[in-house]
């Protein structure tokens, strides 16, 4: 059994508080970057869990929120490929998991968005023409998206090499 400290708190309490501080700090940073609050908190909680996976009930308890709030957050996180859902063997309960390469996979998904945006920007340039202010702005956006697509491909290749060298995977 954990030895009680003089302030009547156990090391487990200290660990839970440390996890909570990390979750709230990282979630606040994700919110500043544009992610909504509940998905940010759920993602940070999964990221900081020992196994990288928790059930809805575990997330609800840890974050002190309703299962409905967790469900909505997980739906969003799964949609943007930051978490996956899996069934517990022999159970109907789902466990939500964050992978070590979630950022890589999320960026790969963004590549498809970039291509769709490029198509729309090309159509806008054709519609308005380069001799109009809006056509030039749309073309600038198109050029930026083309640049991003090219650079993301190169960046992903460099990341794969870096990961293999430094993380063994």
Structural class: mainly alpha
Unreliable spans are 1-6
Please state the overall shape, judged from the principal axes of the Cα atoms.
elongated
Distance between the terminal alpha carbons, to the nearest Å?
38 Å
Helix content: 55-70%
Report the strand count. Answer: 3
The CATH class name of the largest domain reads: Mainly Alpha
The gyration radius over C-alpha positions equals 21 Å
CATH topology-level name of the largest domain:
Arc Repressor Mutant, subunit A
CATH second-level architecture of the largest domain = Orthogonal Bundle
What order do the helices and strands follow? Answer: HHEHHEEHH
How much of the sequence is in beta strands?
Answer: 5-15%
Pfam families: MarR_2
Protein name: MarR family transcriptional regulator
Keywords: DNA-binding, Transcription, Transcription regulation
Organism: Streptomyces durocortorensis
Can you summarize this structure?
The chain has 169 residues and is mainly alpha-helical. The protein contains 6 helices and 3 strands; from the N terminus they run ααβααββαα. The chain has 2 domains: 11-97, Orthogonal Bundle (Arc Repressor Mutant, subunit A), CATH 1.10.10; 102-167.
Description:
The protein is mainly α. It folds into 2 domains: 11-97, Arc Repressor Mutant, subunit A (Orthogonal Bundle), CATH 1.10.10.10; 102-167. The chain has helices spanning 11-32, 37-47, 56-63, 67-79, 102-128, 133-167; strands at residues 53-55, 84-87, 94-97. The chain is elongated. Residues 1-6 have low confidence and may be disordered.
């Amino acid at each position: 059994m954990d030895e009680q400290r003089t302030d009547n708190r156990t090391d487990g309490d200290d660990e839970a508080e440390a996890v909570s501080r990390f979750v709230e700090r990282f979630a606040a940073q994700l919110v500043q970057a544009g992610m909504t609050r509940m998905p940010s908190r759920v993602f940070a909680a999964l990221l900081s869990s020992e196994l990288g996976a928790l059930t809805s009930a575990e997330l609800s308890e840890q974050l002190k929120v309703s299962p409905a709030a967790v469900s909505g957050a997980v739906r969003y996180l799964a949609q943007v490929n930051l978490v996956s859902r899996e069934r517990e063997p022999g159970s109907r309960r789902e466990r939500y998991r964050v992978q070590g390469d979630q950022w890589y996979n999320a960026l790969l998904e963004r590549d498809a968005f970039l291509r769709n945006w490029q198509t729309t920007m090309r159509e806008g340039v054709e519609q308005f023409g380069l001799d109009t202010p809006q056509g030039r702005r749309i073309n600038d956006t198109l050029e930026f998206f083309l640049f991003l697509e090219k650079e993301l491909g190169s960046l992903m290749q460099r990341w794969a090499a870096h990961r293999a060298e430094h993380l063994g995977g």
